[in-house]
Amino acid sequence: MFYKISGYKGIIILCLMNLLLNYLVLYPLGLGQYIGPEHPYLFGVINLVIGLIMLAVTILYIRRVDRKTVASLGIKKGRKHLIYSLAAIAITIVLHLVYLKSLDEAGILKAYFNVHYFENAQIVPMLLVTGAGWFVNAFYEEMLRAYIVVKLKHWGPLLMFLTIGLISIAMSIFNGLDLVYSILIFIVSSAFLYVYLKSGSIIPAACAHFIYNFTLGHLFGSGAVAFLRVEGETTLWYGLAPFLLYVIILVVMAKLIYGDASVEHCLKKIDKSGQQAAGKSHSPML
């Protein structure tokens, strides 16, 4: 029998379920060796299954235990959301393309276009499968982030950003954490959170999250679906400049497109929208 769990237990339960599922995939099932750009189909299918399971569990929990609508988290369409999403996709690809080609020009690594890219009859289905895997996981993670915002909305912006950043670090524990990587996760998590708060919708943050992972994970690199082939490796410090520029661009675009309203005002607006969505869900059908 479902019942409402008060407080912050929902956050703990959903985060622990995510960690447990990732642990099962990586260790008892031993599927971690297939989660890489060399195996696009397996990567896409595994990530799609994981993402859909966690998405279904999260939606079921919100609907049946918290007795809230998914719409209360902010799944909204609109012209501004479309503009932001398309701009984030285009800028992310162009930014990293320019960065990698500049490293190629400097002789630090080799980056060149795969001129036979579309000669491979499997390239389109491989792109669709890997892209779907990345997007579903990005959407689920942004939905979870939005759920945490709803639960922590009375904490204040500073404490909320700090808490959600630390949760994001903890959720990446199986990726092999160190101090620098943890700081980078905290920064990008805060950027996605800021985009969500400014827009009031999961969609722009999910699109920005998706294209960043998809670009660096598959579109650029040495994998089977990479249209920009990259040979050689660089130190972490070479990647800091485009990473920080990417974060700054996300934040600046959010301010330009969604206005200069404070984070506190955005939180109140999200809370009000959530209450309206909850009210509609309890309204009788006409």
From TrEMBL:
Keyword RNA-binding among record annotations: no
Transmembrane segments: 12-35, 41-62, 82-100, 120-140, 152-173, 179-197, 209-230, 236-258
Listed name of the protein: CPBP family intramembrane metalloprotease
Species: Paenibacillus zeisoli
GO biological process: CAAX-box protein maturation; proteolysis
All copies of domain CAAX prenyl protease 2/Lysostaphin resistance protein A-like, residue ranges: 127-214
Molecular function in Gene Ontology: endopeptidase activity; metallopeptidase activity
Highest taxon listed in the record's lineage: Bacteria
Coiled coil: none
Keywords: Hydrolase, Membrane, Metalloprotease, Protease, Transmembrane, Transmembrane helix
Database matches in InterPro entries: Rce1/LyrA-like_dom
Pfam families assigned to the protein according to its UniProt record, in alphabetical order: Rce1-like
Record has Lipid metabolism as a keyword: no
